[in-house]
Design goal:
- The protein has a 7-stranded mixed sheet, with helices on both faces.
- The chain is 42% helix and 15% strand.
- Helix 5 packs across helix 6 (99-107) and helix 8 packs across helix 9 (193-202).
- It has helices at 2-5, 17-31, 35-42, 64-67, 71-84, 99-107, 120-132, 166-181, 193-202, and strands at residues 89-93, 112-117, 140-144, 157-161, 187-191, 213-214, 218-222.
- With 223 residues, it is of the alpha/beta class.
- It has a single domain (2-222), classed as 3-Layer(aba) Sandwich (Rossmann fold).
- The structure holds S-adenosylmethionine (SAM).
- Residues 56-59, 67-69, 92, 94-96, 99, 116-119, 122, 146-148, 161-164, 168 line the site of S-adenosylmethionine.
Length: 223
């Protein structure tokens, strides 16, 4: 069943991204995510000004399937993680609708998860969807917070797809460096050009000990 819903597509450089997004759109409907038919329409396209006064990149008014990581890719990320380490706690920085929780639950349920999302409409739908699909909140936590004013949560793995603007991402990665300096192993799945660019240009500590794993649209870095 999980294999049918979340097929494991082999990673290859010429992966057809349009096909993966079409599959994700279909699966959103099958799984009952209401993002496409409603929620995103209510996510206003106005730039939100957070409590700090600075605007934040919240991906408002953009195509849903570009905003989110396709299920097939999440499945491949999970396979890459499972090949490297034992299941632990995965934190998603800027979680959208927390698709990853559903993939973990179906395909590798020993992982626990927490998704942090700043847009209240997305968080509310993620909470409704989690309950509708029967995912236990004790294992799949969903928090509505602005990560810019939140301490870095503890995690075995951080998943980050260009969650905000450059300054926010830089701050988050510096917090991860502090965590590594305190003796914790830090593993980051970086997706998107901005996140990977920041890590590669300014954070050699995430590539000094363990060779990063580079895939077409994400990389896995480790301290
Ligand atoms: C590109 S989307 C990625 C969604 C999801 N991680 C995925 O890969 O499918 C980035 C998400 O980060 C959220 N976000 C932006 N700024 C944030 C902040 N300061 N704190 C928490 N979430 C934030 C956005 O609202 C958006 O849902």
């Amino acid at each position: 069943m999980s294999q049918e819903l979340f097929p494991f597509w082999p990673t290859r450089p010429d992966c057809d991204y349009e096909e993966e997004k079409a599959h994700a759109e279909h699966l959103d409907r099958v799984l009952g995510l209401r993002a496409a038919e409603g929620v995103e329409d209510f996510v206003s396209t106005e730039v939100q000004v957070a409590t700090s006064g600075a605007p934040t990149q919240q991906w408002r008014g953009l195509a849903l399937q570009s905003l989110l990581t396709p299920y097939t890719e999440l499945r491949r990320i999970l396979a890459d993680l499972d090949a490297r380490l034992s299941p632990g706690h995965l934190v998603e920085m800027g979680a959208g609708y927390s698709r990853f929780a559903h993939v973990l639950h179906a395909c590798s349920p020993k992982w626990t998860y927490c998704g942090y999302e700043v847009v209240p409409e997305r968080h509310a739908e993620a909470v409704r969807w989690r309950a509708a699909r029967g995912l236990p909140s004790s294992r799949y936590d969903l928090q509505c917070v602005d990560l810019r004013s939140h301490p870095l949560p503890a995690a075995d793995v951080y998943f980050m797809y260009d969650y905000s603007d450059r300054t926010s991402i830089e701050t988050t990665i510096s917090q991860m460096q502090d965590r590594a300096r305190r003796g914790h192993r830090v593993i980051v799945v970086g997706r998107g050009g901005l996140t990977r660019n920041i890590i590669e240009k300014s954070h050699p500590w995430l590539a000094a000990v363990v060779e990063p794993l580079h895939r077409a649209r994400y990389s896995i870095y480790q301290s």
